[in-house]
Amino acid sequence: MGKAWGFGRHGGPEVQEFFDRPDPAPGRGEVLIRVDVAGVNPLDHLLRSGPVEGLDGGRPFPRVLGMEAAGTVLALGEDVNGLEVGDAVFGFALTGGGTYAETTVLSAPHTARIPEGLSATVAATLPVAGTTAVDVLDQLGLPAGATVLVNGVGGGVGLAVARLAVGRGLRVIGTGSTAKREHAEAVGARFVDYTAEDVAAAARALVPDGFDGIVDLAGGSSLRTVAPLARDPRNLIAVGDMSVPDLGGRFVERRVDRENLERSARLALDGLLAPVITAVHPLSDAPAALAAVENGHASGKIVISVA
User: Fold this and answer.
1) Fewer CB within 10 A of the terminal residue: the chain, N end or C end?
2) Pairing assessment for the beta strands 236-238 and 213-216 based on DSSP bridges
C-alpha cells in the first residue's frame, strides 16, 4: 500500500483527502513508476472540481490529484516501447492515475527518459510548463528581435515562456502583480505591474507599434484588455481561455508526446528552459501546495517531493 492524496468526489478543497492505495497495475501503453517529484498545476484543481473530458480516465473514486511527475519505472504494461524497468522518466498521467502519490501509472507514449544531468525536480516541471512554452512559441514562430507580450507572466508557464522567448532573441514584456516582478525580471522580461498601472497604456508605451505576438495566460477580462495590442490578431495565443477565437486569436496547439518532452529536456539542460521553482513541498504538505496554485498567489513553479 502506498500513500496518495486526492479527492473522494468532485468539488472544492473540502473533498480532498489522504488515502492508502495498492500500487496500480500498468495497463496497455502505461508504465508504473515510483514517484520522486510531482508538479502542481491549475489543471489539478480543475479536474477535482468537475469532469474534464478525456482526462479523468474513468477511474473510480477516490482519485489521485496531479498530472505530471518524474520517477523510476517499476513495471511495464503491454505494448510499451522505448522504456525499460529502472529508467528514470518524466511524463504525463493522462489515463487518470494521478501523481500526488508514492507510485502511479504514466501514459508511456507521453513519457520520456530523464537525460543525464537533469534533476528529477526540474524534469517534473517540464510536461506541463516546459512543453507549453515550446508549443506557444513554435506556434507564433517569431524571428529574433520581435516583440512578445506574456500576459500573466508570473506563474510556472508564464516564466517558462518568457525565459525561452528571451533565449530565442525576442524582446519580452510580461504583465503580473507586484509579487511577480522579481522572477519575471530575473528571466529577462520587462515587467508591467497590473496592480499599479494601466496595463494596456503601459505596454503600448513600451511598444508603440503593437506586439508581434501575445501569449495570454490570464484569460477573461485581462485577455480582452491586451488583445488590441497585437499587431496581427492571429498572433494572439491563449493557453487557458477557449474564447480567444472570438478576438481573432488562436488557442495553443499542444503536443504532449515523447518527442516534445525530450526536446524540452534538452532545452532545460542547455539553460534555455529554466523553470523557476519557488517551493518544494513534501507529500504530507500537498494541500498547501495545491492551495497556493488554486488561490492564484503562487509565483513560479511549485512541486511536491514524494521520494
Assistant:
1) N
2) parallel
Phi-psi region for residue 144, left (φ > 0), alpha (ψ -120 to 50) or beta? beta
Coil, strand or helix: which one is 210? coil
pLDDT in tens, 212-243: 999 999 999 999 999 999 999 999 999 999 99
Contacts of 306 (CB under 8 A, 6+ apart): 35, 36, 37, 38, 71, 100, 101, 102, 282, 283
| Residues 95, 47 contacting (CB under 8 angstroms) | no
In sequence order, what are the residues at sequence separation of 6 or more whose Cβ sits closer than 8 angstroms to the Cβ of residue 157?
128, 129, 132, 133, 217, 239
State pTM to two decimals: 0.95
Instruction: Report the first-to-last Cα separation within the chain, whole angstroms.
Output: 15
Dist CA 73 CA 32 (whole Å): 6
Strand partners, 72: 34, 88
CA dist 73 and 62 (Å) reads 24
505591474: which residue's cell? 193
User: How many CB atoms sit inside 10 A of residue 179's CB?
Assistant: 13
Triad 299, 305, 307: Cα angle to 5°: 170
- What pairs with residue 76 in β-bridges? 31
